[in-house]
Design brief:
The structure is a homodimer. Chain A is mainly alpha-helical. Chain A is about 70% helix and about 5% strand. The first copy, chain A, has two domains: about 60 residues, Winged helix-like DNA-binding domain superfamily/Winged helix DNA-binding domain (Arc Repressor Mutant, subunit A, Orthogonal Bundle); about 130 residues, Four Helix Bundle (Hemerythrin (Met), subunit A). Chain A has nine helices and three strands, in the order αβααββαααααα. Chain A binds a DNA duplex (30 and 30 nucleotides) through α3.
Chain lengths: ~210, ~210
Amino acid sequence: MTARGLIRGLREQIANQLRDDILSGRFEAGARLSETMLADRFGVSRGPIREALVQLTNEGMLVGKPNCGVVVASAAPDSIRELIVPIRRTVETYALRQFFDSITDDDFAAWEELLEQMKKACQKKDYNATVELDVAFHRSLLVRAGQPDLLAIWQTIVARIRMHFRQAHMKMKDPMRIYAEHRAIVDVFRKGDKEAAVRMLEVNIE
Amino acid sequence: MTARGLIRGLREQIANQLRDDILSGRFEAGARLSETMLADRFGVSRGPIREALVQLTNEGMLVGKPNCGVVVASAAPDSIRELIVPIRRTVETYALRQFFDSITDDDFAAWEELLEQMKKACQKKDYNATVELDVAFHRSLLVRAGQPDLLAIWQTIVARIRMHFRQAHMKMKDPMRIYAEHRAIVDVFRKGDKEAAVRMLEVNIE
DNA sequence: GACGTGTGAATTGTTGACAATCGTAGGTGG
DNA sequence: CCACCTACGATTGTCAACAATTCACACGTC
């Protein structure tokens, strides 16, 4: 437990916070992130900072240069959506088909929990939270499919377009629609209609 | 310069060597990789080893567990190909279209250099090298397109199926065919026929 | 004024040491 | 014989210090 409330296993915690900061615009694209500054800021040594920076560099959130540290990657251009949407549809519907026939009550309980949190985040217009919950919902499908390859691919994709999630959420006239769409997906899952579920998932991905 | 010939900036070099070892089967799936052992083996401290392991974990080559180190990930199932081939085609042809009209002499020089190395590797039946050169060729297209998003996505995909590249290469009756196919792609680039180039690239991706 | 060179501060990259955690082996009790 | 507990060695996670590199600024020369 550090002075900043972080516990052992710092890398992931630091990476998560930095990712949040980048997505929230607290670090601009092109901004240089200094290990020394971050170590001061998190109240830890540079070792775990470096590891977190490696992770975020691999996610594409940062761009590294030997001996010169890392800068915040520029936002993915909008044109990338035309590419990523079909890829996401391919990957996520594939995952859904893998496990649809073995959905359990535990699965539904987990989704209901996510939906409850999503509803609250929508009510509060907390867009960082709605993004993370939207991502978490879709991630749960990949995790449930139980294929690490798919999950790795999907995570890379989503890391690159998180900013787009956020922009899309903020543009919605009624943020409750985020919740409603995912509510509807889970409801179709309950009906056991796989093809309807696949179609609804595809509609959600855009 | 370490005793093992490594120079400063160890992470990438170590990651590259470990990746090669994993792909060559020198570490079995499920095998635990100990930082201490690797540090001894490479003749360096554990710091850069840890960073390399973070990188390879993000690539999906390794699976980490807090406080317990990392194990070698199991090979991607063959069924993943049916998913990855279309994704690769989507990504790589998109990239090719982005830069095709601005191909330079420097581009051709780089590809000729790759092809020369590929030819030699084929003659020597050095399948690790043919895989890396095949990957390098395709990677060059992504790099040339100048979109970090695409490159990150592509790298994640390819990291997961490198073993498949290797198996495919080893199955070829004549390894020179690897060279010949890529030779033909570059030749079509020289003719400036974009659509033919896209089609030939798609045929190569399988 | 423009260009080149040198210097020093800040930072990155690596190392070795210390703290914390885990897994295994052995001992004890029921 | 089995279950539980404890101890210890090996390893992971983190820290602070040292070495190497980069960049910005100041100064000198043309």
